[in-house]
């Protein structure tokens, strides 16, 4: 296991604003019991999706008890329900869409509310599904879809995502635009809760959707759709769900926040430790209390084994990840800033925000660092910014967010 060195810890502390104590001081305080969580139970909302796995494992394997509290998972019907209950204080924290949390902070996903991102729960693992009707017309990818859409009046075809500022909306818009399709002018988009995606496609309410698993695999199994793109083909190792809460909750219960993140880090590490652990996770998630589905819809894609439903199979180089030596969970500032650039691109923000300041405010690297030190064996990155290359060749590294947001040829009119 890799221990934090004094130098790396001080470096990480400086990036987070220098608000942390030295490791020896913290360890002494914890040994004295001063880090005891203020709350005995923590209510965490989730949507029944594969990427809620860290919550399920933390509760099932007792990682919550290890850190002195009881995790109470609460299943919700939609992302709007998660938003409302989180803001109202009915939930302490939630498995939540990255962009939903940022939208709340900015007042474009509901009434403005100061929010906090404590950690990233997973990377990758979402997909864009197109209907079997489109497949029968020869559509296999974005290029084929553009040709078909060009033969119809604008708005003829409807696509669904899960929340206006959510990750699935951003993946869908980015993929369509990369194929030359304007997601606001050329097609119609609607919001559908994840568990209702397959049913709505079956009855013809839309020809495509972007959602997390197991609903893309379920569409293939039910022979109503095929996987046109994975989210990791759009952005390899992209951030997806996060552990979100209200800023006031973190300030009121800092030890509980640290304990919660620690327990979920332990769960992430356990899941990714072996294929057998991922299979056991799929077995747990299939139960009624969690996803209430068949294990077969979960296991393959958790292991990176893909079948797109129209004859292509592959072992994905960027499968759903939960740990990756702790790098998955780190709340990178650049990850949050990317969603802000897309909000600007698509007219959800009318002016350029202070990208870096907003990310620093929401992404609580200080809480993550406390938790990582408690868990042990997890390095802090040397910078809160990371570099990625997306499907269209654009490089995102967080250094020029305004320039990045304004570089796209396809954007929302008036944005």
UniProtKB/TrEMBL annotation:
Superkingdom field: Bacteria
Gene name per UniProt: nrtA
Coiled coil: none
Matches recorded under PROSITE patterns: TAT
Family: Belongs to the CmpA/NrtA family.
Matches recorded under InterPro entries: NrtA/CpmA_ABC-bd_dom, TAT_signal, TAT_signal_bac_arc
Source organism of this protein record: Leclercia adecarboxylata
Protein name as it appears in the record: CmpA/NrtA family ABC transporter substrate-binding protein
Keyword Cell inner membrane: yes
């Amino acid at each position: 296991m890799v221990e934090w060195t004094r130098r790396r810890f001080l470096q990480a502390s400086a990036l987070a604003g220098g608000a942390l104590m030295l490791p020896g001081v913290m360890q002494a305080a914890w040994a004295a019991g001063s880090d005891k969580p203020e709350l005995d139970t923590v209510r965490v909302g989730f949507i029944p999706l594969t990427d809620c796995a860290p919550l399920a494992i933390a509760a099932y394997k007792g990682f919550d008890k290890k850190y002195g509290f009881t995790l109470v998972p609460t299943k919700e019907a939609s992302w709007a329900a998660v938003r409302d209950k989180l803001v109202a204080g009915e939930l302490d924290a939630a498995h939540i869409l990255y962009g939903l949390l940022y939208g709340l902070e900015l007042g474009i996903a509901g009434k403005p509310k100061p929010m906090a991102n404590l950690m990233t729960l997973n990377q990758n693992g979402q997909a864009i599904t197109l209907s079997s009707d489109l497949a029968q017309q020869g559509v296999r990818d974005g290029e084929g879809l553009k040709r078909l859409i060009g033969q119809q009046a604008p708005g003829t075809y409807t696509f669904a995502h899960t929340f206006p500022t959510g990750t699935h909306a951003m993946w869908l818009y980015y993929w369509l635009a990369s194929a030359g399709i304007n997601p606001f002018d050329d097609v119609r988009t609607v919001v559908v809760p994840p568990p209702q995606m397959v049913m709505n496609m079956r009855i013809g309410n839309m020809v495509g959707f972007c959602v997390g698993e197991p609903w893309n695999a379920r569409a293939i199994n039910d022979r109503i759709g095929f996987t046109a793109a994975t989210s990791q083909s759009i952005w390899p190792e992209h951030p997806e769900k996060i552990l979100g809460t209200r800023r006031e909750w973190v300030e009121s219960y800092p030890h509980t926040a640290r304990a919660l993140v620690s327990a979920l880090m332990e769960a992430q590490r356990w899941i990714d430790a072996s294929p057998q652990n991922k299979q056991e996770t799929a077995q747990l998630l299939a139960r009624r209390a969690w996803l209430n589905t068949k294990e077969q819809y979960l296991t393959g894609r958790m292991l990176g084994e893909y079948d797109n439903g129209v004859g292509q199979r592959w072992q994905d180089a960027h499968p759903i990840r939960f740990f990756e030596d702790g790098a998955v969970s780190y709340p990178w500032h650049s990850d949050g800033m990317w969603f802000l650039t897309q909000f600007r691109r698509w007219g959800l923000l009318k002016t350029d925000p202070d990208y870096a300041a907003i990310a620093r405010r929401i992404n609580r690297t200080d809480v993550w660092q406390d938790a990582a030190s408690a868990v042990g064996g997890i390095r802090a990155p040397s910078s809160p910014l990371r570099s990625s290359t997306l499907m269209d060749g654009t490089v995102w590294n967080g250094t020029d967010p305004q320039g990045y947001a304004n570089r796209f040829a396809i954007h929302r009119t008036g944005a």
